[in-house]
Hints:
By secondary structure, this protein is α+β, with helices and mostly antiparallel strands. The chain is 34% helix and 24% strand. It is globular. The model has no long low-confidence stretch (mean pLDDT 95).
Amino acid sequence: MTDLGKVDGAFFDEYIYPHLGADREDVTLGPQHGVDFGVVSVGGEAVVLASDPLSLTPALGFEKAAWFAVHVALSDAAVSGVPPSHLAVTFTLPPEMTDEEFRTVWSTFDREARDLGVSIVTGHTARYGGCRYPWVGGATALAVGDPEDVVRPDGASPGDHLLVTKGPGVEVAGFLVTLFEDAVELPPETIAAAKERFWDMSPVRDALTAAAAGPVTAMHDATEGGLQGALVELAHAGGVQLDVDSEAVPVLPGVAASCDFFGVDPWAATSEGTLVLTVESGGADDVLAALDDEGIPAAEIGAVREGEGVYVDGERVEAPDVDPSWAVFEEYAEKVGLE
């Protein structure tokens, strides 16, 4: 197991994958390393399920922290292409959280869920000794819809076009610069641009817009391991080769300077909000146009080929061993006295 972050494929295969409870015929997509969601067939409909830990970082302000938390909770279900419909939330809160702080968090959850058509159906809320920020619980999102609408993570095929939204490093700029602004030595206009990336840290509308616009064959969000990790996982899931043109990959304002300041490779660092997707031949223009209409930056960055693995400008790349943003977070949290 890695010291920080998600377990790797070897750990998953040895410790988790052989032990998945009862075999049931209604499970049409079960757990796989690097795959965002599972699917159960119920009454002729597909029920997509995805679970994630829940984090709140008070230094962001509770409204921003809650906005990020609820979008993270919904993102893995959204990359199925089926709109999230239901949410279960568990809060295991530190004793020092006040009722008013929780009111802000919950009203934000309610507002964002209503906006996305999501009903919160169950959960658990309590304060417990020993609990501390940022990890304060977990959430499970469901998306219920037509099985034909599910975009499977293993659906990429040779001949498909490879697209990305927003590009790498979005979370380094949007989250880390916002959180550690007082310790960031960059020009004010660069800091302002980086902080704007905070509101790009959700792939939910990216995924739903793309799936509605064209024949999308696979989607994956670029969280731990960043864009590079997401590309490798998407290629592995589909048993295909991805050829990537690095010059075609968009980089949003504030990202490059932020990554340089923190000393991280933007392609390897977690980038919540960045979506990697493959589209059938002939459908890429429709998907890109739909994303543009929603104000979501996106570009075609390569192609799906016969073979296996990811090649960037002709060179084979692998998933990062460790996401560099974890070390940056720990270093700067200590510098600014963030608890």
